[in-house]
Amino acid sequence: MRVIVADDAVLFREGMARILAEEGFDVVAQARNSAELVGLVRRDTPDVVITDLRMPPGFADEGIEAAAEIRSFAPQVGLMLLSQYVEVHHVLRLMEEFDGAVGYLLKDRVSDLGAFAVDVRRVAGGEVVIDAELVSRLVGRRRERDPLAELTHREREVLSLMAQGLTNAALSEELVLSPKTIEGYVRSVFTKLGLEPGEREHRRVQAVLRFLRWQ
User: Fold this and answer.
1) Which residue in 54, 97, 144, 202 is deepest, having the highest Cβ count within 10 Å?
2) Do residues 146 and 188 make contact, with C-beta atoms less than 8 angstroms apart?
C-alpha cells in the first residue's frame, strides 16, 4: 500500500515513515507543508495520505484543507489526519464533508503500531476512523435536553463504537453479540433518533453526527 506522509516536524515525519515501512507500507514521498503535500499527490497519487492537521504557515487547519483539496481531484485516496488536540469541529467537518475513507487520530495513538496500521488500512478501505480517546471524552460530557437521553446504556455503547467507525460486524465482535442482535440495537438507535430511511441521507452518518454534536 502506497503512502505519502506530511508533517512539518522532520523527526516525527521520519519516524512515521520508518514505522509505516516496518508495518509493510510503501512510503513513496514526504511533505513538509500542505502545499507540498497537494503537489506530491497530484504528481504521484498514493493509496493513503497521512497528514498532520496543523502545518505551516498558519498552524491552524492546513492539513484538513489539503485533505479537502485532495478529495476534490483524487477521491479514491484515503485521508488520515493526525493531531495533538481533540477538536470536535474538525471531526464534524470530516463526517459532514467527506464521503468515507477518512480518519482523525491523536498522535499518541501512533505509539500502538499494530492498531495504527489497522486504522490506516481501514481508511484506505473506505471506512471512517475516529480516535477512541475523542469519543470517550465526548461520552463523559453532558448537556441539558440531551436528544440521546432516550437511548439505553447498550444503545449508547453501540452508537459510541459506531462513532469510532466500527461496522456491524466489528460491533458484533467487540461486544460479543450476534449480528442479528447488533442489527436490532442499530435499528433501535435510528428509530429513537428519528432517522427514517431515505435516499439522500446515510442514517449511520447522521446518527454519529448527532452523537458528536450533543455530547
Assistant:
1) 54
2) no
